[in-house]
Write a structure and sequence with these properties.
α4 packs across α7. It is built from seven helices and five strands, in the order ααββαβββαααα. It is α+β, with helices and mostly antiparallel strands. It has one domain: Beta Polymerase, domain 2, CATH 3.30.460.10.
């Protein structure tokens, strides 16, 4: 049995309109549409490398960790064609140490969540490179879970297929915000993380 340094995520209430407004920097624009999933693209790892180089070029040693996470980091998995990345910094609250440098590389700070692991979200939207950059402190439990989830799906076909089928069903619905779609996946993500934590694959005897 494994003994990871992270625990299963605590139950979190689905994001309300008021909460999303409170954490959003800039225009709070609803989606009011379905989620567009794309088949796995073999170019996604190289797109991550390009985005990661943008981060390293301005933060240097201040980028304590950069990881490709989310569905675009799992070969064979359909995903929204946006690269998700985890960036670990010394202190996410010290925005002056990383936001302005990243803005010089066309990243834009869009979310600030002091009550959720001091998470910050910056986005990059170039014509051929779209990226969500999630900023946490080093060894933050949430980022460790994101990495563990990725690693598990990379090697566990049954859970990867389960997660993909769940996403495809949810993607057919109309969502006011992308976060509402993400919240709807939380139960299946927790179940998969539970198997990743124990190291016991799905449907094992």
């Amino acid at each position: 049995m494994r003994n990871p340094k992270w625990s299963l995520p605590a139950a979190r209430e689905p994001a309300t309109e008021a909460y999303l407004e409170s954490i959003t920097i800039g225009e709070h624009k609803p989606l009011n549409d379905r989620i567009q999933l794309a088949p796995y693209d073999a170019n996604w790892p190289s797109m991550f490398s390009r985005a990661a180089q943008k981060v390293r070029s301005v933060l240097s040693d201040g980028a304590l960790q950069i990881e490709h996470v989310g569905s675009t980091a799992v070969p064979g998995l359909s995903a929204k064609p946006i690269i998700d990345m985890v960036l670990a910094v010394e202190d996410p609250r010290d925005e002056a140490s990383y936001v302005a440098p990243l803005e010089s590389q066309d990243f834009v700070l869009r979310k600030r969540e002091p009550d959720w692991f001091e998470h910050r979200l910056l986005i990059l939207r170039e014509s051929d490179l779209a990226c969500n950059l999630h900023v946490f402190a080093l060894h933050c439990e949430e980022s460790e879970r994101m990495i563990a989830f990725r690693d598990w799906l990379r090697v566990q076909d049954a859970d990867r297929e389960l997660y993909e089928s769940t996403k495809k069903v949810l993607a057919t619905q109309t969502w006011r915000h992308v976060q509402n779609y993400a919240d709807a996946k939380s139960e299946i993500i927790r179940k998969i993380l539970e198997r990743a934590r124990t190291g016991i694959p799905r449907n094992s005897p």
